[in-house]
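Example (one chain per record):
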Amino acid sequence: MTAVTLAQVKHESRWLAQFASNVTSQAGEDGILRKALDMLPNRNRWCIEFGAWDGVCYSNTFNLVESHGYTAVLIEGDAQKHARLRTSYPHKQCAICIHAYVGWSAGDGLDAILSTHPVPIDPDLLSIDVDGNDYHIWRAIEHYRPKLVLIEYNPTMANSVEFVQPADPGCNQGNSAASLVKLGLGKGYELIAATRLNVLFVDRRYYERFHISDNSLDAMRDDPPDHVFCGYDGTVFMRGAIGARWHRVWLSERDLQVLPRVLRKYPPSYNAVQRFGFDCYQKFRHPRRRVASNGTVSNQEAVELRRLEEAK
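Predicted structure:
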């Protein structure tokens, strides 16, 4: 596929992006959702969002309630934020406010939380934004089948990366877009849009209505511009901004180097002193690793090393 053709495919497949706009959303989701909902039949004008915060700040559902006649189920686990939600939300008559942490077990999953409320089994929209366990929460939903699912992903991860954070309430790492797409396909959902923060899925029954020629992740989303790569001599290079983005702590190329400067040389070009130095360096840094005289590790040893390092 030529660059021009690929650009055309991306442009045509991402047509929903031209409707991006924010009322209270962060990355154009309000406008994209409004257009996507217009494409659906038999709308019941119900939407669900968690964590909802105060129902307005960074909300993906407030515009639907405010301007388009929707009823919202707003779920917030934090006690102070929920109290603010109940007192300050301006459309209380159109909202069910629930104080709960949405989990992924039979007792605390969305199915259980919604079962005591008059929510249709197929609400128009479910927005999942809990900064970590989004994947596990969506995976656990079985009874309810929203027409659209908007779910947060970690934007620092490339399209080729499959990553799912541990199912741990105390963990906040996020999940890759690729893993969410794979989960969605398994649940019968198709990707129809991607913003810099969220991916949007539609129930497969309605996918043809969107006339998307290629909804692969590569067509729908550009990879982040931040890269780490390695030279043949062992020098680690960086392009872009790599680091703890949410903490605003950034790495430099110096931080990434795994070899001292004197050993950054293509291994077949090592002299006797450098080979000896490399062997000593590896034994000091990785005492369990057995390094061959040419500076390499056997396949079997590499597998064992990975197992040991993953077990740390």
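Caption: Residues 290-305 have pLDDT under 50 and may be disordered.
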